[in-house]
């Protein structure tokens, strides 16, 4: 089925490569020096092995067949054992024990039916857990077989239809005087005229070309074949949107979540088989029994909506939320620039005008560290100069009022004192400051409009 059906082979390959293309990492069994040493050896000899991606794909052959076995060929020197290469075991050489139906065995001439047990430490065994029950009934091939068979019959009928579609019906006529030999020759001429485009007939015989009504049978065959492909996609990938036509980008993003869940389950299953049948024998052969063993982990990254991140971060930063630049870069797939790297973009200019409450200054103070920087606009500079001495300007106007209130012993005394200090309130300096600021702004406007 994988060799004869392009669609089934394609979607099954997509599901395999979703796992084999992920770079694994190793988690130490303990935090001490010995635990880190063992983990580094596991990473160097297994996780970073040149044949690791092929090993994962061979293990995922169990998706279609229900089980897979890979043989480990070990190499050794004076100090250490390590896996030299991994070789897939042909499924036809394997069988399950007849008593329980759960133990994989190797077929042997001495025991062709029951088989012999797999040698510990020499084989990696992986069984697809697509549903509960016996492993040899778990393969996707059992689910897909009916759809594949119906599709194969449909394609055969479609090809037969194409061979005769549009060709006229060749109808031979013979009279009552025709003999059996004449009928045979007429039939032979009718049959050959479709390929040879030529025939020789007696005058007593006649061939007519009858054109019937156009038969639109191609749509029936194509519709069923496409439907069968959709069912195969659902069985293998858990969805159809990213493998078939006629779907929008938003639909594909939603359905891709289902595929992501399947990929994570496959990754956990493969990692569990590797830790049981490859990591443990490797560690035991070189360091003996361990209380806790290192683990190979295959993490399927969660798909990030980068457009939503790039939209939300500036808005939240303007509201005062602070972020780590390295974390934002990692989510977007960007690395931290080095000192000699040519960079695009720069940090926003901080606005910290004394006493200024405009939106630009407030957002600048929220997004950057406080610091006095030159105003970006001349009008802001005029406003900043006018407000620079606001305490001295306001002191002439409000100083007598504050002193009268502070010296009063009661509300009545304060009200009487305020009436007495009104002549002492000096507004001349405030008026001068406002006049100067207005004159500068008017002059700047005239220069810009000039």
Question: Your description of this structure?
Answer:
- The model is unreliable at 246-258 and 362-375 (pLDDT under 50).
- The protein is of the alpha+beta class and 450 residues long.
- It contains 15 helices and ten strands.
- A hairpin with a 4-residue loop joins β2 and β3 (81-88).
- The protein has helices at residues 6-20, 33-47, 52-59, 62-65, 140-164, 180-196, 218-237, 249-287, 306-318, 325-332, 359-367, 378-388, 390-407, 411-421, 428-449, and strands spanning 25-27, 67-76, 81-88, 94-96, 104-108, 111-117, 123-127, 169-173, 206-210, 295-297.
- The protein has a three-stranded antiparallel β-sheet with strand order 3-2-7.
Question: What keyword list fits this structure?
Answer:
alpha+beta; 15 helices; 450 residues; 3-stranded antiparallel β-sheet; 10 strands; 12% strand
Global mean pLDDT:
76
The whole-angstrom Rg is 42 Å
- Can you count the helices? 15
Cross-sheet strand order for the largest sheet? 3-2-7
Q: What are the segments in which pLDDT stays under 50 over at least 5 consecutive residues?
A: 246-258, 362-375
**Largest beta sheet, briefly?**
3 strands, antiparallel
- Structural class of the secondary elements? alpha+beta
Q: Distance between termini?
A: 82 Å
β-strand percent reads 5-15%
Coarse morphology: elongated
Measured as a percent range, the helix fraction is 40-55%
The string of secondary-structure elements, in order, is HEHHHEEEEEEHEHEHHEHHHHHHH
The tally of beta strands, per DSSP, is: 10
């Amino acid at each position: 089925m994988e060799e004869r059906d392009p669609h089934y082979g394609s979607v099954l390959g997509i599901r395999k490569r979703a796992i084999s293309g992920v770079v694994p990492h190793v988690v130490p069994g303990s935090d001490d020096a010995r635990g880190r040493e063992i983990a580094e050896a596991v990473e160097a000899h297994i996780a970073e092995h040149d044949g690791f991606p092929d090993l994962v794909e061979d293990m995922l052959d169990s998706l279609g067949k229900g089980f897979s076995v890979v043989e480990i060929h070990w190499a050794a020197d004076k100090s250490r054992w390590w896996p030299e290469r991994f070789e897939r075991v042909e499924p036809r050489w394997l069988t399950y024990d007849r008593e329980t139906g759960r133990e994989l065995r190797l077929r042997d001439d001495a025991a062709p039916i029951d088989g012999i047990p797999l040698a510990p430490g020499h084989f990696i065994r992986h069984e697809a857990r697509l549903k509960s029950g016996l492993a040899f009934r778990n393969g996707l091939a059992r689910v897909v077989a009916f759809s594949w068979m119906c599709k194969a019959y449909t394609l055969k009928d479609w090809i037969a239809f194409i061979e005769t579609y549009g060709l006229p019906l060749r109808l031979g006529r013979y009279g009552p005087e025709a003999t059996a030999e004449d009928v045979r020759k007429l039939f032979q001429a009718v049959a050959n005229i479709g390929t040879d485009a030529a025939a020789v007939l007696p005058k007593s015989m006649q061939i007519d070309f009858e054109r019937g009504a156009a038969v639109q049978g191609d749509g029936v065959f194509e519709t069923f074949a496409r439907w069968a492909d959709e069912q195969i996609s659902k069985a293998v990938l858990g969805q159809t949107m990213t493998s078939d036509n006629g779907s929008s980008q938003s639909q594909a993003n939603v359905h891709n979540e289902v595929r992501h869940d399947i990929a994570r389950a496959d990754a956990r299953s493969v990692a569990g088989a590797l830790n049981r049948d490859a990591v443990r024998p490797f560690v035991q052969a070189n360091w003996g029994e361990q209380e806790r063993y290192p683990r190979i982990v295959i993490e399927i990254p969660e798909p990030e909506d980068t457009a939503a991140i790039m939209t939300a971060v500036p808005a939240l930063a303007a509201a005062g939320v602070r972020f780590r630049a390295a974390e934002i870069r990692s989510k977007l797939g960007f690395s931290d620039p080095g000192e000699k790297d040519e960079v695009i973009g720069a940090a926003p200019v901080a606005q910290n005008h004394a006493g200024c409450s405009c939106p630009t200054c407030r957002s600048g103070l929220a997004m950057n560290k406080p610091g006095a920087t030159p105003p970006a606009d001349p009008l802001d500079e005029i406003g900043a100069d006018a407000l620079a001495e606001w305490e001295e300007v306001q002191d002439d106007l409000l100083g007598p009022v504050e002193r009268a209130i502070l010296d009063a012993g009661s509300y009545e005394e304060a009200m009487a004192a305020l009436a007495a200090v009104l002549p002492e309130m000096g507004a001349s300096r405030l008026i001068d400051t406002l006049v100067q600021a207005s004159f500068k702004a008017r002059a700047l406007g005239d220069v810009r409009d000039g």
